[in-house]
Amino acid sequence: MNGEPIDILGIEKQFGDKSVVSDVSLSVKAGEFLSLLGPSGSGKTTLLMMIAGFEFPNSGQIRVGSRDITYLAPNRRAVGMVFQKYALFPHMTVEQNIAFPLRMRSLATKEINRRVSDMMGLVQLTGFEGRYPQQLSGGQQQRVAVARALIAEPPVLLMDEPLSALDKKLRETMQTEIKRIQNRVGVTVVYVTHDQEEALTMSDRIAVMSEGRLVQVGSPLDLYQRPATSFVAEFVGKMNFLKGEFVGSDHGTFRVRISGHATLSFDLVLNGEAEQYRPGCRVRVAIRPEDIIIRQRFEPGHQSGIVLRGTVEAVIFLGQAHVILVQIEGQGEAPVQVLVPSLIGQATFARGEMVDLMIAPSAVRLFPELAGSVQ
Amino acid sequence: MTVTATIGVPSTEAIRRRPLTGSARSYSKTLSLILIAPLVLLMGFGFLYPVGKLLLGSFFAPEFGLEQFQRLMRSPLYLTVLLRTFEIAFAVTIASLVIGYPIAFAMAKLPRRWAALTTVCVLIPLWTSTLVRSYAWIVLLQRKGVVNALLLDLGWITEPLRLIYTEGAVVMAMTHVLLPYTILPIFAAVRAVPNELGQAASNLGAGTLSVFWRIMLPLSLPGVFAGCLMTFILALGFYVTPALVGGPRTMLMATLIGQQTTETLDWAFAGALSTVLLAATLTFVVAFRKTLSLNRGFAGVS
């Protein structure tokens, strides 16, 4: 079985006069695992439904391989789908569920039996043939749903938040499991999720959607390290935003003053968004929790960045790490999160303690202050 | 907020049980008894006692024995009526199913506005008196009724047809009256089938017809059985409509029993007839349920 590429060209979708998907163009390579990531209402599920054929776009085109499937009936698309709640047929056994697509294609019983038993092996459900879906655990139902979607060997598999009904531990197991099966069969996967961690773990590429638009498409590392907008920066991974003011630029370096720390200004390399910034305008300085270095006190002269002074507000133990919430003067309500690996024997910080946070310019991203944005 | 004793770590059992405690399960036995007491009293005095007396009466007249039942068996008239009752109930059930299923399906699947309109059309007859609806059929079907007048005017017939007081008229009128009882359970069953199942089926290659035949129909069967059973049982004991539309020549069990109690005042024999009808109905229901429970797939559906 081989995956086929998907080309989405200028898709628009309105429900009534409400625009749900606006001008989305996206190419998925054959065999690629692409996640559509976004908060609820971002249009990602609607986009998926249009690929599956349960919704039709107002304009635009969807192609799988060389076929235009934009207005094709769902049962003629050869696009597999795993539904959020699995949608297993409750009146059929596991075996009958998995065999359903082959029955619909009127294959010989012998062929059906052979392929069903192969597939049961692939998803590790051998022995459960005669069970009914309601007699299976959530994870097993998930496997049946994947098996059923893949048995007719569709070139494309769509998954609509398939793991959202499972608990955390099982979800992680199934993530690896889905990746393993995908690698085995080579199908192109479009995976809808609102869980950024899941998207980062599983995807070859992630397409971030917000309010019906595609915000950024890139590899997980790309998105994490080079978010194109503050929405992506905030949605993918954890991000601190410091309030600041743009001071000026010369020869490709930019100077930003962090609010409440009037004397602190620093140089910052910024990739190509210069037009948006004018001296005196408000900016958001973004930095990941793991990129901040925290000490009781930095010796002057031993600094490779700017140092902000603050008060520890809370220390949260996560297992492999601690998150330390630090309130920085002049930064308003939201404390800065600092991620510190929990090493044996290393002293943590206490609530109320004064600390220094060091921020390296290379770890910082700059975004314009959004009109009407909170933070 | 109440601070409960579970400030320590509550056991997983306690956590698991909590979501269920909002239901009737958490009511004490006493409270449950108090809640159902009015119904139990009403059923006891208003239903069980008189019906029991009527049924038992059939075994004690003139003295203890099966005299009344032997009388019933001796006369072919009574057996004919019993058989006819079952025939007509069966015909009404089938007719209601054939007419009702598409309507129920439409109610569940149409866009909201149309579904609401259909629902109203189904429910309005249910809110109208059975008596009125039965008389309406007389108006339509009688010798000089609407149907005959129309057919005569069109010149399709030269003599008025005998439409009323036939088995056909009884089946038609009873189907009309009982249709909602078939439709509503089917509607509930079809509505309970998640939309994604149909989508999944068509995603997996099933055409519209296959989706219906392989998914929607099997999953709506519990509703079909419930609706049919309800209609069948109601039809077996139906009194008003067959009495008005059927006349003396298409007498059914209920009419016969009514005659025995109000005209001949033979309560013992009425009791015997009732016993036979009740026994036949119960046998039928039990047999029906037994057949259903043998079908495994429905265990998790209904």
From TrEMBL, chain A:
Entry GO CC: ATP-binding cassette (ABC) transporter complex
Residue ranges annotated for the ABC transporter domain, each copy included: 6-236
Keyword Cell membrane listed: yes
GO biological-process terms attached to the record: putrescine transport
EC number per UniProt: 7.6.2.11
GO molecular function, one term: ATP binding
Catalytic activity: ATP + H2O + polyamine-[polyamine-binding protein]Side 1 = ADP + phosphate + polyamineSide 2 + [polyamine-binding protein]Side 1
Keywords for the protein's UniProt record, in alphabetical order: ATP-binding, Cell membrane, Membrane, Nucleotide-binding, Plasmid, Translocase, Transport
Cited SUPFAM superfamilies: MOP-like (SSF50331), P-loop containing nucleoside triphosphate hydrolases (SSF52540)
Pfam (any one): TOBE_2
Protein family according to the UniProt entry: Belongs to the ABC transporter superfamily. Spermidine/putrescine importer (TC 3.A.1.11.1) family.
Function: Part of the ABC transporter complex PotABCD involved in spermidine/putrescine import. Responsible for energy coupling to the transport system.
Subunit (UniProt): The complex is composed of two ATP-binding proteins (PotA), two transmembrane proteins (PotB and PotC) and a solute-binding protein (PotD).
NCBIfam families assigned: potA
Protein name per the record: Spermidine/putrescine import ATP-binding protein PotA
Source organism (scientific name): Neorhizobium galegae bv. officinalis bv. officinalis str. HAMBI 1141
Gene: potA
